[in-house]
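Continuing the series of single-chain predictions for the mutant panel. This is the parent chain; the variants come on the following pages.
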Amino acid sequence: MSFPSTIFVLCTGRCGSMTLAKACTHVTNYSTAHESRAHAVGPDRLTYPSPHIEVDNRLSWFLGRLDATYGNAAAYVHLIRDPEETAKSYARRANQGILLAYRNAIIMRAKFLNPDATIMDYSRDYVATVNANITSFLKDKTHVRTIHLSTIRDDFDAFWEWIGAEGDRDAARRELLTKHNSTERKPWKQP
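Parent structure:
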């Protein structure tokens, strides 16, 4: 049996996904992209070239369609960062992006928000929900790997071997040393 030609990196976001995507651009036998189909709707949303590595935290909201389209014919990576650190990063960006949508539209409309809930409560809830969705989705998949941000260098080397990557591994490893799209280190506060 040959290895799948499409690899999806599933994650919460704010977990090193852009850094991993940059490292994967040094793989020459796969194309690599970060959120390349985020603008697309309908069947185009999940239409990727082959062989390809796609890193996109928004795929966690398309898992049913991803399963129907690719199922066990793809390989999957669950990229994980410490949940509390991920939640803190989201809290620092609370008034933009997915966390704003999550707390104001997915959980409940703004006028009904729980006055006792903090931004960190919503951030933690988002991270837990996405990680649980991904874990549930992956439970019956054959080609699955986990990469932890805390051990990304070793996990990336294992990933490189797992997919039979070719290319400039040293350049890829150097990318892992750069924090791409990092959140400014400042204390979060309730908006």
